[in-house]
């Protein structure tokens, strides 16, 4: 093949890929699964875990630190309050949890992007929380607000990402006590998908609600959920004042929270899956019940983050079998409580987007998809045990999320899906390439990876012998260069910016 012919062939392939990407950009707002659930825990074991969790709640209890109001609420509800330790009569929390909805709608500023969290639905959200970012050509460094905006833009453009997420990276170039304004505004400005709010201080949660009232209208927010935010349990069995303050602010405003035990088994919980799930269930039930004391019917999600721990180094490990067992049992327990469930994602401990990152992420994502996780946080971009948001891995991960989306849609048993016309047309001994059914589905028949190279060795070599990370890096640059922001009402934008400016001017910068 001549150089000119090679260039022509390459342009043709790129044009076809661009056409596919543009076609794929018309995405579904969330996944409605059409395949059976995978349940790894027997009913007998589930009942044992439930009984043991009730024992933990009754005998050991949960600590609610530095929040007299919460302790007073528990006392009034009939719990045994001893200092900051709260113990619960058997069955008390289940009775309180019964008012929580089994699913809820989180509205987006684009009504077509709203998601239903819970039930038979799956929502993919990006990575959450890393202080560092990594790029293929820039290496590892602290995140900035520009990185934050970039990840919001990538998530907005990715068809398999249904939710803009929250702290997609930590913008350390901004003061700690003011950066939440820019973070929440970035989700509102650069995406029209649903988003998460700030939880690092009760006032910052209240600021998020106020900004939502500007964006959606105060009356609409009073009656609808427009924000879902993450409340982490300080495992083992402690809720701190920061998380409690944010929980109260959101629950009172009818905005959803994800109550998430954060357990690294072996350090923050038992080394056994059953022990870990028992602790997680007790911790989650206490937080979920508290939201219902504050506002019965407030939307709330049973969350779980669980990893195993290297007994040699003390570092978290991912993609191992034990967290899969924990996740599956926790998903079953959430369904028995009639609560939406959050867990999982594309988790790995690798420092770079290499083979370890790929196989650990795949082993983390598959259970989340098959076991019925409703809200999959850390769906794309996670690296280095959650310390790094990686641009290239974000692209690699959204490719895998797209595959999961196809898988969870299940089988097409329509007349077209049965393909009997094709079988009759082709008959014995012939091929299907030219038949009418194949031609009709030629461009859409199978999932086509946006990252993988399936060309011949000679084509791959002639095009520069580029690996997956290099290809992903090119896609990042192309996506950001072609980004077009979703329209935002100018008056609302002006009001948001004025609110932020006034708030920032009202107190000094601080890194606390």
Overview of this protein structure:
47% of the residues lie in helices and 13% in strands. It is of the alpha/beta class and 512 residues long. Strands 1, 7, 10, 12, 13, 14, 15, 16 and 17 form a nine-stranded mixed beta sheet that branches. The protein has a four-stranded mixed beta sheet with strand order 3-4-2-11. It has a four-stranded mixed beta sheet with strand order 9-8-19-18. Strand 18 and strand 19 (388-390) form a beta hairpin. The relative contact order is 0.14. The protein is globular.
Distance between the termini: 62 Å
Please give the largest β-sheet.
9 strands, mixed
Strand share of the residues? 5-15%
Helix content class:
40-55%
Quickly give the structural class: alpha/beta
Q: Short description, anyone?
A:
The chain has 512 residues and is α/β, with parallel strands linked by helices.
Describe the protein's topology.
Layout: H1 3-24, E1 31-32, H2 43-60, E2 62-64, H3 68-77, E3 80-82, E4 85-87, H4 92-97, E5 103-106, E6 115-118, E7 121-124, E8 132-135, E9 139-142, H5 145-157, H6 179-190, H7 202-216, H8 218-223, E10 228-233, E11 238-239, H9 241-252, E12 256-264, H10 273-294, E13 300-303, E14 305-309, E15 316-317, H11 321-336, E16 341-343, H12 355-370, E17 375-376, E18 382-383, E19 388-390, H13 391-409, H14 415-418, H15 420-426, H16 436-440, H17 457-462, H18 468-482, H19 490-505
Parallel strand pairs: 2-11, 7-17, 8-19, 10-12, 12-13, 12-14, 13-16, 16-17
Antiparallel strand pairs: 1-7, 2-4, 3-4, 5-6, 8-9, 14-15, 18-19
Helix pairs in contact: 2-10, 5-6, 6-7, 6-19, 7-9, 10-11, 11-12, 12-13, 13-18
């Amino acid at each position: 093949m001549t150089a000119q012919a090679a260039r022509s062939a390459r342009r043709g392939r790129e044009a076809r890929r661009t056409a596919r990407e543009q076609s794929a950009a018309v995405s579904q707002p969330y996944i409605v699964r059409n395949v059976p659930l995978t349940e790894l825990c027997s009913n007998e074991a589930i009942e044992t875990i439930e009984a043991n969790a009730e024992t933990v709640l009754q005998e050991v209890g949960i600590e609610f630190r530095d929040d007299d109001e919460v302790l007073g609420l528990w006392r009034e509800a009939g719990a045994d309050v001893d200092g900051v330790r709260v113990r619960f009569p058997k069955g008390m929390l289940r009775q309180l949890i019964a008012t929580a909805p089994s699913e809820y709608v989180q509205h987006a500023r684009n009504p077509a992007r709203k998601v239903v969290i819970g039930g038979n639905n799956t929502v993919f959200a990006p990575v959450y929380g890393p202080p560092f970012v990594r790029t293929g050509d820039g290496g590892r460094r602290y995140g900035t607000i520009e990185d934050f905006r970039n990840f919001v833009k990538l998530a907005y453009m990715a068809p398999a990402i249904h939710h803009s997420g929250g702290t997609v990276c930590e913008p350390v170039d901004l003061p700690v006590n003011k950066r939440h304004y820019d973070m929440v505004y970035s989700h509102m400005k650069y995406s029209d998908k649903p988003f998460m709010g700030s939880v690092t201080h009760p006032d910052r949660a209240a600021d998020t609600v106020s900004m939502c009232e500007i964006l959606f209208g105060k009356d609409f927010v009073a009656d609808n959920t427009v924000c879902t935010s993450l409340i982490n349990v300080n495992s083992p069995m402690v809720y701190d004042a920061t998380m409690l303050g944010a929980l109260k602010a959101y629950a009172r405003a009818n905005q959803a929270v994800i109550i998430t035990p954060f357990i690294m088994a072996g350090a923050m919980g038992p080394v056994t899956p059953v022990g870990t799930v028992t602790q997680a269930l007790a911790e989650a039930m206490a937080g979920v019940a508290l939201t219902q004391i504050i506002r019965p019917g407030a939307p709330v999600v049973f969350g779980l983050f669980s990893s195993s721990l290297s007994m040699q180094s003390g570092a978290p490990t991912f993609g191992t079998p034990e967290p899969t067992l924990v996740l599956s049992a926790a998903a079953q327990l959430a369904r028995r409580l009639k609560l939406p469930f959050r867990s999982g994602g594309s988790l790995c401990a690798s420092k770079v987007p290499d083979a370890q990152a790929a196989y650990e992420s795949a082993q983390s994502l598959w259970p989340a998809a098959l076991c019925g996780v409703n809200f999959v946080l850390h769906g794309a971009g996670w690296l280095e045990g959650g310390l790094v948001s990686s641009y290239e891995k974000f692209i690699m991960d959204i490719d895998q999320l797209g595959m999961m989306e196809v898988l969870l849609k299940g089988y097409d048993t329509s007349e077209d899906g049965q393909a009997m016309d094709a079988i009759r047309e082709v008959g014995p001994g012939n091929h299907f390439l030219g038949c009418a059914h194949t031609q009709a589905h030629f461009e859409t028949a199978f999932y086509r990876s946006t990252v993988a190279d399936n060309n011949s060795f000679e084509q791959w070599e002639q095009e520069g012998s580029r690996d997956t990370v290099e290809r992903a890096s090119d896609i990042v640059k192309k996506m950001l260069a072609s980004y077009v922001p979703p329209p935002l009402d100018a008056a609302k934008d002006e009001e948001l910016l004025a609110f932020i400016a006034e708030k920032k001017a009202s107190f000094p910068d601080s890194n606390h």
